[in-house]
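User: I'm putting together a small comparison set for a docking exercise, and I want a reference complex before I start. The sequence is below, and the ligand is flavin mononucleotide. Could you produce the 3D structure with the ligand included, as structure tokens?
Assistant: Of course. I'll restate your input first, then give the structure tokens for the complex.
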Amino acid sequence: MARILVAYATKHGSTAGIAEAISKEITAAGLSVEVKEIKNVQSPSGYDAVVIGGPIYMGKVMADVKKFVGRHQDKLAAMPVAAFVVGLSPASKDEKEIEAARTALSDAIAPLQPVASALFAGSLDPEKLGFIERKMIGMVKSPTGDFRDWDAISAWAKRLPSLLVKG
Ligand SMILES: Cc1cc2nc3c(=O)[nH]c(=O)nc-3n(C[C@H](O)[C@H](O)[C@H](O)COP(=O)(O)O)c2cc1C
């Protein structure tokens, strides 16, 4: 049975929820899945394919993603990889913001060429933020709330098994 790793970065937990939802769909397709915080993954060795995801903070995907890709670039380049990014800009209707999220994702996973990629709207709960983060989002008048679209997440995840595992 193919073994899939779903490796995610998170600061406040909303990307973890998305990673769990993705793993449920892949498990439902009959594959063996492990979901792990990316900073705790020693190596992608032993997996047949990897799904990598992380949130955007101040225009960039959390650094743990780029570190993981840099450290294991050769192994990852030799296996199917899917990638997703989480942020408030994917919830926006502004094409420039959506493009910025897309650029942040490709920068974080470069030079990998994912078999599938997605931008997902995240969640921002001011109660979970520290003083400085609260000031930052206040300055940019960021919307707050949970914008995660579980239907869009499941629909994307349902496509993954056939893209990640051939034959
Ligand atoms: C200080 C701060 C900066 C952020 N910067 C961005 C950003 O530049 N672009 C974006 O799309 N979302 C931004 N966000 C929204 C987060 O990406 C969103 O809340 C995400 O769901 C957080 O994921 P996590 O809960 O897994 O850490 C920011 C949030 C905070 C608190």
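The chain has a mean pLDDT of 95. The chain has one domain: 3-164.
User: Thanks, that's exactly what I needed.
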